[in-house]
Amino acid sequence: MQFQRVLIIGSGLLGASLGLRLRMLGVEVFLEDNSPMACSLARDLGAGVIASKDEDIRPDLVIVAVPPDVTPRVVCETLERFDDAIVTDVASVKKRIAEGVNGHSQAHRYIGSHPMAGRERSGAIAADADLFEGRPWVVCAGPTVPPDTVLAIQQLALEVGAMPVMLEPAEHDRAVALVSHVPQLVSSLVAGTLRGASAKDLGLAGQGLRDVTRIASSDSALWTSIIAGNSRFIAPILEDIGKGALDLAAALRQGEENPGAPGVTVNVAQVIKRGNDGVDRIPGKHGGAPERYTHVFVLIPDKPGELGRLFSDIRDIGANVEDFSLEHSVSQQVGRGEISVIPSAAKFLASGLEERGWQVFIEGGEQ
């Protein structure tokens, strides 16, 4: 690790998670935050020590982990406070920040970055030293940034478990609008339709609704700043989604008024098919090509130790789990575990679990 003294400004999820990981690597970490309580919480969790106003800490790296709307100002202030430190930020928009910093006389010491890691929960209480494991870490270097500074931030990403990716600020913002910002807004829009739903209706909710709305509980203040900072790339995607939704609604209205009208079912099928095509393009395990898995479903009694027993049995059987999810249904005393495996392993796993007393179903038919 090139950096031995790091100051993190902002002690939320990303700042605290970075502090935890850097301290595990033996780095001396100092914390600053406008909220004394937030800073104290991050300290108490082990993310670093609170920087004293009277102490000349002389960091060799400053990580700015504040909302995007104030990031340019904080970066510029930080460049003036510390003459020799490299300064980076971890905000999820990059072009507006670069535009706000590039005119500074010390802009050559600033390099934008963004770890593509997060959670639906915010704040230091959700921090995790392993948050960046296997995640892309985008590095956006300005034209005056020396190569050794770029290399140092790339190495920082590697040290915390991430994979550095070089992009121009506009490239980054266009990409995250598509894969992060718009999904957040769509999830929130869907969840917003539930506000007036009856308890009876919501009692029918299944895993599909939970999957779509999982990230809708995210921090509204933070996301307001993020979305406002990337509106130029988000708006066209929302317009495209909106047009598709309006076209589909019009077709459905036509079918309601004139059952059997031509083109209604085709419109629905096209929407679903386009979704299938899009999902197939999302990278699969380890970033490779997406794979088709078979799903083995297991009924898991809702009592202590049962989930651990299931995983222990899977280990003993010797099957490799590609993915796992657990769904609870209202008023049922069991959960339904969904185990994703390569197709050739499905019957082998199902038979082994059934022999150990589990009630098992294979996708497409009962075991």
From TrEMBL:
A Pfam family this chain is assigned to: PDH_C
Domain Prephenate/arogenate dehydrogenase: 4-282
EC category: oxidoreductase
Any one GO MF annotation of this record: prephenate dehydrogenase (NAD+) activity
EC number(s) given by UniProt: 1.3.1.12
Record's keyword terms, sorted: Oxidoreductase
Top-level division of the source organism's lineage: Bacteria
Keyword Cell membrane (UniProt): no
Membership in a protein family: Belongs to the prephenate/arogenate dehydrogenase family.
Record-given protein name: Prephenate dehydrogenase
